[in-house]
User: What shape does this take?
Amino acid sequence: MRLTTGLRLKPVLAALCPLLFAVATPVSAEWFADLYGGVAYTPPSDVTLVVRPPGMEADHTFHDLKWDPSGVLGARAGYWFDALPWYGIGLDAFGFNANLPTQIVDTTISGVTEPATLQKIDFAIAAIAFDVVRLRYPFLASPEYPNGRLQPYVTAGPALFKVRVTNKGNPELTNRSATDSSMGYKAGGGLSWQLTRDTAIFGEYRYTHFHAEPVLEGAITGLRVPMQFDLNTHHLITGVSFRF
Assistant: This one.
């Protein structure tokens, strides 16, 4: 379960840097920066290839396709407000894969459903999520840890996803990659444990959703072949948090 070398995280990770300097107001805050990794799992779902040569409509809908699990890597930065220590905001950049292995599934073409083979197709996803809501609760608060040494938290907000799709084995399609960008959302919750006043470890579950329509290309016809799908993914991550 490794991320492919084709996944480009540098642009989204670079987007975290301006956040650290974006608030030039006298409002005090507890800043944080997180690094994390984990696993991502996408349950079976449908994928449609929009095949429409002139005068025809022969869309291919593949039902209940299985997606390979993947690693996930990311970084997050933000702050908790001193005036409202239970509320914060953040910017989160992460990447994962959701590849389709070769499989035989029920496929609907022109209203007729029969088993068919879909060859391997790779999906690489990079995302930037805006945590407009971050809520925490201070368990085990003390003078040394006024915001609690144990902090359960929840987070939610919109996210921008960029997906790159590469056909690996279907002869009807070229191997040229197709990309699409789409707005979706991310929501999750976790537990953070302060090792020291400046360092914490955390574990988190998150759920992401987006719809995309990258456009592939027919190998023989050269026609545009949009691929339509919803990607609903479960993530389990763990990492280290720095507070300052």
Observations:
- Residues 117 and 217 are 19 Å apart (CA to CA).
- Residues 10-243 form a domain with the Porin fold (CATH 2.40.160.20).
